[in-house]
Amino acid sequence: MMRKIDMHSLVAALALGLVTGTALAHGDEDHSQDAKKKAPAAVSVAGTMGAAGVAAAPQRLADGSLFVPKPVQRQLGLRTQPVRIAELAATVELNGRIIPDPETSGRVQAMFAGSVIPGPKGMPTAGRKVVKGEVLAYLRPVSGAIERGNQKASLAELEAQLAIAEGKMKRFEQLEGAVPQKEIEAARIEHSALQQRRAYVRASIDSAEPLVAPVAGIVSASHHLLAGQVVDAKDVLFEIVDPARLAVEALAYDVGIAKTLVSASALADQTALELKFVGGGQQLREQALPLLFRITNRNAAVAVGQPVKVIARTEQGVKGATAPRTALTKVGAGETAVWVHTEAERFVARKIRHQSLDAANVAILDGLHDGDRVVTVGAGLLSQVR
Questions:
Q1: Domain-by-domain residue ranges, the chain?
Q2: What are the tens digits of pLDDT across the range 103-155?
Q3: Residue 55: beta bridge partners?
Q4: Are strands 79-82 and 66-67 parallel, antiparallel or unpaired?
Q5: pLDDT in tens, 268-293
Q6: Mean pLDDT to the nearest integer, 186-203
Q7: If DSSP codes are grouped into helix, strand and coil, which group holds residue 361?
């Protein structure tokens, strides 16, 4: 929350550097004549320059409006703009979150229980760039003493069978011509099959399975894997995403919104995101329909799992005035309002009802009139005047 400002101290510190002259309002209009007008009676003395040339501090008048001298307006950096009542697109706000783009992301999971062995470049860490097919690590199978003993017994049995088969094959080959050719071929096939079985059993005991990157990108999560760590089958070991290709998944409680959706944007903290609608599911999740959007901003400063507010524009329309989000402020008991510049040095708070238009702007549905000049920069500072 913004720290409250002591307006009297601000004016006292800065007023000596102010130069009187043409008073420019901060929506680029000239109010030099208005500045010569008398201030409201309640602040006729406070609204003038003192004998020492020090500007009066802003004050809240009896009717709740604010008297803010022109020099203080400039020091606060207030900016205004006129609003126009027009037909605007109706919007719906949806809760969403950042997810990896399904087309450019992937996971590496353990196919069986085993211990992790670092890859050729060491153990992958979050943020490391990888290419498709790169060996990230190896997974060596682990087994209990009984299972391992059975595997070694099977290997010993295969070694014996292979020795017998090899001797048989050599005898038949020495007797070629006396022994039917089909028996010689059968002996060779049996010998080859036993060799393959031995290789498989030996690999299950000693060798490690390479874990390769299914896509190119960066390692977004390595789940704090350490060399020698034992993992279970199906455990997620690494997650890889393309930071330039992220998506947003939002939940819509109106299942028909996908048919009327025109465009969408999102707000992640203070980051505005432009979205492209990809499609919606046909199965409810948490009593809502999941919608998928692709982020079109290049290198947006967001992270997977980050919550966002999706603003979906529909084909329906509403009447209102467009204003930037910076114009909104809180007054009274937390009601949303905007400050209207009614006179050269007078500002009035208007309670309003609004809806989002996009990540940067809102539609003010009531509380304003066509042509009202709204404070777009510094509204929060005005709300702190007591």
A1: 1-104+243-386, 106-241
A2: 999 999 999 888 999 999 999 999 999 999 999 999 988 876 666 677 778 88
A3: none
A4: unpaired
A5: 887 889 999 998 888 888 888 999 99
A6: 87
A7: strand
Architecture of the domain whose range is 1-104+243-386: Beta Barrel (2.40)
Question: Rounded CA gap, 142 and 191, in Å?
Answer: 29
Please, are residues 294 and 276 in contact by the beta-carbon 8 Å criterion?
Answer: yes
| pLDDT, mean of residues 228-239 | 93
Angle at Cα 278 formed by Cα 275 and Cα 283, nearest 5°? 120
Helix axes 145-174, 181-206, angle to 10 degrees: 160
- The mean pLDDT of 282-305, rounded to a whole number, is 88
Res 99: pLDDT: 94
Closest CA to 257 of 279, 234, 236: 279
Q: How far is CA 142 from CA 50, 156, 200, 207, 222, in A?
A: 86, 20, 16, 11, 21
For residues 249 and 161, is the Cβ–Cβ distance under 8 A?
Answer: no
Q: Give pLDDT tens digits for 241-267.
A: 998 899 999 999 988 888 888 889 998
Topology adopted by domain 106-241: OB fold (Dihydrolipoamide Acetyltransferase, E2P) (2.40.50)
DSSP classification of residue 325: G
- Quote the CA–CA distance of 131 and 135 in Å, as a whole number: 9
- Return the DSSP state at 176: B
Strand partners, 261: 314
In this structure, what token pair is assigned to residue 162? 């292979």
Q: Which of 66, 65, 80 is nearest to 24 (CA)?
A: 80
Q: Please answer whether residues 141 and 116 qualify as being in contact, where contact means their C-beta atoms are separated by less than 8 angstroms.
A: no
Distance between terminal CA atoms of the chain? 17
Q: Is 320 helix (H, G, I), strand (E, B) or coil?
A: strand
Q: What is the CA radius of gyration of the chain?
A: 37
C-alpha to C-alpha distance for 270 and 301, rounded to whole angstroms? 10
